[in-house]
Amino acid sequence: MGKIEALFFDVFGTVVDWRSSVARALEAALGPRGVSADWAAMADAWRARYQPAMEEVRAGRRPFVVLDVLHRENLEAVLAEFGVGGLSAAELDALTRAWHRLDPWPDSAGGLAALRRARIVAAMSNGNIALMVNLSRHGGLVWDAILGAELAQAYKPDPLCYLRGVEALGLQPAQCMMVAAHNDDLRAARALGLATAFVRRPTEHGPRQTTDLEPAAAWDVVCDSLTELADRLS
């Protein structure tokens, strides 16, 4: 691991707890309007539209748009699915920005700070730059760079997303490590020559999560937190 100079981090699910945060935001915005719903289920439904929306871009069926646009479109669809109406455009925009205020996992800020003492730490997310800046300020997350989809104009796991990040830092793939709680993210990064670290986040999708509970391959590092990752790489 001595050759690793930069760590690229998946953010949603790996660094921040999107599900609990989005569920709270939905309840705070819609509860006072008299809406009664399973807020976690609504958050799950919103997130379930994430990959299909990005696939429209990956497949070339629509031009690249930033994730805020996709989240806003998906929100409207989810509210219709749950029978919720009557929100103004401004209210829809404000609720979409719930993704800018996701709380980090307890180990995230400290783990990133420890890792940053010796290596470059960069967000490698499908989130757009404005979203990442607000999210980082909200959670006290300090990055050396915000890379990912908007820089590459492509969504992970498109190879461009990883390779443009490597190029932006003036490095080679073998000098970079992808850190994620998702096996498919690591699989795509390894295929391009990046090192890999799997972080277990067994409640990302709630208490009945069935995916990404364990590493699906012999990743370079497997750990339970970013603080453990810092210890392992020190």
Q: Could you characterize the architecture of this molecule?
A:
The chain is of the alpha/beta class. It folds into two domains: 6-17 and 102-233, 3-Layer(aba) Sandwich (Rossmann fold); 18-100, Orthogonal Bundle (DNA polymerase, domain 1). The protein is 45% helix and 12% strand. The protein contains eleven helices and six strands. The protein has helices spanning 18-30, 39-48, 50-58, 67-81, 89-96, 108-116, 129-139, 149-152, 159-168, 183-191, 226-233, and strands at 6-9, 120-125, 145-148, 176-180, 195-199, 221-223. It has a six-stranded parallel sheet with strand order 3-2-1-4-5-6, sandwiched between helices. Strand 2, helix 7 (129-139) and strand 3 (145-148) form a beta-alpha-beta unit. The longest helix is centred in the N-terminal third of the chain and has 15 residues, at 67-81. The mean pLDDT is 97.
